[in-house]
Amino acid sequence: MALDKNGIAKRIAQELKDGWYVNLGIGIPTLVANYIPQGIEVEFQSENGILGMGPFPFEGEEDPDLINAGKQTITVRHGASFFDSATSFAMIRGQHVQLTVLGAMEVSQNGDIANWKIPGKMVKGMGGAMDLVASAENIIVAMMHSNKAGQSKMLKECTLPLTGVGCVKKVVTELAVLEIKDGKFHLLERAPGVSVEEIIAKTEGEMVVADFVPEMKI
Amino acid sequence: MALDKNGIAKRIAQELKDGWYVNLGIGIPTLVANYIPQGIEVEFQSENGILGMGPFPFEGEEDPDLINAGKQTITVRHGASFFDSATSFAMIRGQHVQLTVLGAMEVSQNGDIANWKIPGKMVKGMGGAMDLVASAENIIVAMMHSNKAGQSKMLKECTLPLTGVGCVKKVVTELAVLEIKDGKFHLLERAPGVSVEEIIAKTEGEMVVADFVPEMKI
Amino acid sequence: MNKVVKDPQTALEGIENGMTLMVGGFGLCGIPENSIAQLVKMKVKNLVCISNNAGVDDFGLGLLLQGKQVRKMISSYVGENDEFERQMLSGELEVDLIPQGSLAERCRAGGAGIPAFFTPAGYGTEIAEGKEVRIFNGKPHILESALTADYAIVKAWKGDTEGNLIYKATARNFNPMMAMAGKITIAEVEELVEAGTLDPNQIHTPGIFVQRIFQGQKFEKRIEQRTVRTKQ
Amino acid sequence: MNKVVKDPQTALEGIENGMTLMVGGFGLCGIPENSIAQLVKMKVKNLVCISNNAGVDDFGLGLLLQGKQVRKMISSYVGENDEFERQMLSGELEVDLIPQGSLAERCRAGGAGIPAFFTPAGYGTEIAEGKEVRIFNGKPHILESALTADYAIVKAWKGDTEGNLIYKATARNFNPMMAMAGKITIAEVEELVEAGTLDPNQIHTPGIFVQRIFQGQKFEKRIEQRTVRTKQ
């Protein structure tokens, strides 16, 4: 059975390592914070200028001066710090953030990502996405395997304007975990009950499939 | 009569304008702070990371964590701020500091300055001088007109390794105030009792001298 | 060195049609509300606004868009604004989108006398079109140039009479770099104190970057995405 | 994310002969005294030290020079040190002199993922030899590259268990940029507190830049130029 958004987030959370600083994009990536494995400590960076983000505030305790990059009211944990946008992207560009998780409209088999612009539609801007994907050593894309029209988002080549080139290392969808290396998708895991055939059918790009593809452990 | 070091500093202090941020080099320039004209307020920046430097501390009140770029113990005035070296030179390079006063070994008629290195002698380094001279809109050199061997330091061309090119706007020596423009020294004022002839004799570079050269008012 | 002016009207004197303004803030967080209201009153037109976002329809820079005062926006993200979309699609409004980190760094560079720098952000995308590409450590980078503005308008939490500023939490965002990059920088603050009151060690923006400062009358501080959890 | 180590010995584990170290401080102000003492004990050799100054004969980095542990100094000003002069003139010690602002900016660039930037400092001087020159706004600039280090060793006033740092007065100087530019950054602090004790708004170096932190046993804080005035 395909995962829901929380399932995708849960699976991505398994990638977290103790001591990592992590930047979570808007949407599914944000949910990752809810599933930090026991026994490890990670710290969340938000590119508007905060390290050590905590959960949403209790009602009545919102502080308009304290938001995340999604403009949501948040809180801070012990040991948090605030800084300006230049310092924030110094952290990102300087590869001090160990993992970036973000959404995408398309990913190609050589790791290109498109997630900011659909020609002919209103363009809202790339925000920090281009800096994040160009800088992070370790990028995981969290997205659905296909778009609303049913077309694969896992492509030979992106058709939409790119956000970054050759930067995505891993993709987690409702169907599968895929690694990108040597210009191909590599199927690492499939969602519980999802068949390899379904994943192949829904993946337009070239994909390497081993004889045995384990089920995700969620 | 030629000025002494304090006289040079006093004359330079007359160039200060209300509201200016000023960086003073080591030596004669430091003395300028003692002669701020009445009725104006200036703020001193030291490139090791302080705005709003005050006088030396009273004995017993020295703070080893509070020094100027000459490594001297200092104090701060109301409204001071501390910052890191990158921010400090952002102020300098970004031309937020309105005036830089520094010493020199040689100045040329097109505004080149040499003040950091004598070939064959121990080189101590340029410190912040190259950033200061390359950045400041307004640079005044405070120095003696001749070196210890009696040779003019006001040259057609510098003979020593340069600190900066075409950057000096004004020179104040024990003998004269000179402006540099259009590739020549322009004699603006002479020290009280010093003759134009003496200044001409001690200036190797080309110098424009008006019919009447007023005496400095110290 | 007293930089205090009495009100936004005095603070914004000199801003004219066609000028380039940097405006601090991220979303509606840390925006100079009082100055924006004054810009609306002044009816200055044809502005080029450098700001990470463009506000919402009825708040923040959205108010300037409503009055058709902006000719061009230089931003990283401009959603949440219908009027913006209408003007952009009709061609009334020019929009230059810049990766957020490059925007921040370009403002800092403008203030720091760094005319250009290399960054990996945007390589291989349309952002890189026409820009020099150079490989460092095996990785392609593009050359980005500094941004400056005729006026930078920033918002701080506390400020003193010499223009020293302290921001609060994530309301800091773009304000410090923009303060550096304005030819004239105007700061509106929630609390204006005498010089000597703030700890010199805790200043975020040293007064050298600020030319005029005033205490805002009122701060609405609208929240864009109110998210809460319920007490168990 | 506890980064506390118990002593300088543990903090400096992994530093080996031939490595590049950044060492914070300006003159003797804000230098990591305890770590320098430990480097002396470790007898690591052939170090490349990036530090604005080289200490004095018997304190600061001068101690490493005494033990002939340094192969190369990258600094802006290296006076006040006889042993330094002797080693430099005899050719034992390589010295790379860099304008102070460029040194600071190159460290920041190294930490910020900016591989190179243009600056006017040094144009037309021997510093510019072999460097690309480009004119911006009618003014020539030279291209300078980022600096990084295997280890950066910084000194702060207060620090917490997550590595957040606050510096005191002008002891801040190069420490924040070097903290950014070290592959591994070690902070020694005068006062080490629990995470949550320091105000998140007042952190100078966010903990993300610091990998190890310890409280120094003792700080001599020697004054290089004691200047005083007398009470009237």
Fold and architecture overview:
The complex is a heterotetramer, with two copies of chain A (218 residues) and two copies of chain C (232 residues). Chain A is an alpha/beta fold and 218 residues long. Helices cover 16% and strands 24% of the residues of chain A. The termini of chain A are close together. The mean pLDDT of chain A is 96. By secondary structure, chain C is an alpha/beta fold. Chain C is built from six helices and eleven strands. In chain C, the strands form two sheets. In chain C, strands 1, 2, 3, 4, 8, 9, 10 and 11 form an eight-stranded mixed sheet that branches. In chain C, strands 5-7-6 form a three-stranded antiparallel sheet. Chain C is globular, with a radius of gyration of 18 Å. The N and C termini of chain C lie far apart (53 Å). The chains are: A alpha/beta (218), C alpha/beta (232).
